[in-house]
């Protein structure tokens, strides 16, 4: 029986876990569309719309944990899976998306 690697992450994390990962240096990857991003996003997040992600995976660091987010949690699961298929091992998605993040009172910003 092989032990679970230290860097292994659950497929999804809740807002508390995501906030902790962000504070520990994780990259927050937002896979929504630019107009959604302008409305509200997590400070410091990187925007790569889901439809562009597969072609742009090399823009992302492989040496950092990546937390994929969207509006409610559906697109982020797909984004996470794209990254996993591309060989990323330290990747998870935010359950409930930016909506859950904001509802928990965590910081958000608006604008480009």
From TrEMBL:
Gene3D superfamilies in the cross-refs: Rhodanese-like domain
A matching Pfam family: Rhodanese
Every Rhodanese domain range: 22-110
Database matches in PROSITE patterns: RHODANESE_3
Top-level division of the source organism's lineage: Bacteria
UniProt-listed PANTHER family: FAD-DEPENDENT OXIDOREDUCTASE (PTHR43031), PYRIDINE NUCLEOTIDE-DISULPHIDE OXIDOREDUCTASE (PTHR43031:SF1)
UniProt protein name: Rhodanese domain-containing protein
Lineage, uppermost ranks: Bacteria, Bacillati, Chloroflexota, Anaerolineae, Anaerolineales
